[in-house]
Amino acid sequence: MNVATPHLGKSRIGHSVCPHDCPSACALDIEIGADGRIGKVRGSADNSYTAGVVCAKVARYADRLYHPDRLLKPLRRTGEKGGGEWQDISWEDALDAIAEAFVKAEQAHGTEAVWPYYYAGTMGQVQRDSIDRLRHAKRYSGFFDSICTNTAWTGYVMGTGSLTGPDPREMAKADCVVIWGTNAVATQVNVMTHAIRARKERGAKLVVIDIYDNPTMKQADMALKLRPGTDAALACAVMHIAFRDGHADRAYMEKFADDPAGLEAHLSTRGPEWAAAITGLSTDEIEAFARLVGETKRTFFRLGYGFTRSRNGSVAMHAACSVATVLGSWQHEGGGAFHNNGGIYRLDKRELMGLDLVDPEIRALDQSQIGRVLTGDPVALRNRGPVTAMLIQNTNPANIAPEQRLVKQGFLRDDLFVAVHEQFMTDTARLADIVLPATMFVEHDDLYRGGGHQHILLGPRLVEPPATVRTNLFVIDELARRLGVSDMPGFGLSEREHITRMLPHYGIDYDGLAEAKWIDCQPDFETAHYSKGFGHPDGRFRFRPGWTTTPAPNRPPASIGVLGPHAALPEFPDHVAVIEAADADHPFRLATPPARTYLNSSFTEMKWSREREGRPEVMIHPDDAAAGGVADGDVVRLGNIRGEIRLHARVTGEGRPGVLIAEGIWPNGAHLDGEGINVLTGADPVAPYGGAAVHDNRVWLRKETA
What we know:
The protein has 706 residues and is of the alpha/beta class. The termini are far apart.
């Protein structure tokens, strides 16, 4: 049996799961010394998706676990907010202070004045989602988790009707792998494991579609570098060529799609010349790509998140997965379009999250609009009262949320109480009133599932945590006790009890899963490839999506409704010009993709990560640099209606003319003026179901003069 309880006296290998916000959810083998400390971390060779590979960030996790700057004591602010003056306090006093602040907020403005705020700093089901149980038990403001997945999931499910797809391990059986809009080398290393296997064993071609020459694109056999926000135009031209050249599978569409004739007619004016003018690709590049996928039945379209973080992102995702339907790629092993497998899992989370306690009359607030919420925007507040108290776990909104200046302005309000439960002193923790030290993943039990694969995995407690840190679950249960709701269902259970209660569908408990390490939940081929029909009631893929009527995995609650310029969304796949286009005053488009050794705002505390990344920079094309008199290493100022920041310029041909790339996310303090890149990103929601368009910004750029 897997040893899930820490013990000393001999070295061993412990089995766990990477907890960070990544679809790979890698199965891990972790060296644990006789002294009870972890050593090297490796990807599990026994797990068929992880396949023995793990990213460099996680391989050196011991450096993070034993980092000298790790938070180890509860702290209370003593000076001005953000001033950096703290005093040590006991856990009892810290939790009492939080509960008292929540009661005070509720007495003054009602229960909705308290807003528990969290996200995916851990992907563990127990430590991440227990905060919702407290929310619902106390009728605190709801949380619409829009920032990351909504645009992608919405667009995919508009077509397929289900957030499922071909077994991602089938990439290794493809004859062509198209990695569309994700820098997998930096963000999903296991995608490359299976794609490169297909290349080595089958001679498969690797196509990468992105907006700059990132490390994934540099490994491609065919690299398509297009303008940001134009992916749907490329998809439309590929489908136009498929109809034109006889590569469209008409028999398949007749059986499995809603209106192929209407689509063909619509695409008659969306040819390669039309798409070239929009995307910046040449007609030859578009023709070559269309010919490759049209002639290669086993084409696996691996669709990422990056290209959907635009104001037309849902439309782009829908158009991209429509290509696989026009070609009939779904019929073949190693073929089809895969984005996320979230729909295959059957975890019972009602008790964990307190779903039976939900009051639909309680407002929901949009995570992406935290700046507007905290500065009193009536629309963001749903025309109700202010938020005056927060508990924040697993996220760092002062750094990663759009409209950063509004976010900071809100956190600095004198009437706002903020408690942050964290592992390091993040930008958000620095603005808090109470800071609580948190455990790391090897120090507690939790359950994980892979969005990018098909496993439910156990991450047991492998080592003893420092005596002064506490789990997320502990904080939630202790606050529930102080706030008078600890008698409600779900409170007072251990992590292991919660895990067992989530697993009845699989006929296994915590101990059984500890023995097995993971459960392979991948459906059979016919189900995964929609061979018996797609997920919509009529079983047909929808070329004509019901943009405001179709269910989606994270559709906003009724209290929010549909969002963004949804009336502008197209009837069929199309390029829709709702992006923040460059203009005379803002001639550049700015995207903010992830750096290789950071993961959102995690790992930025690591010395080796910072040394690898260097400093915050903006990539500028040589033509644009010459026109602006900018040399490599110069300080430049970027700005738009939201604010302005200074960065060092990196003159490189990796991007396109007119496109700026700023990889991150760097801590705010790493920038020249102490403000991060999200000063420039907007929080207006993406149609139709919300999301943050963090790669869709227009800016001006000027060389900074002495």
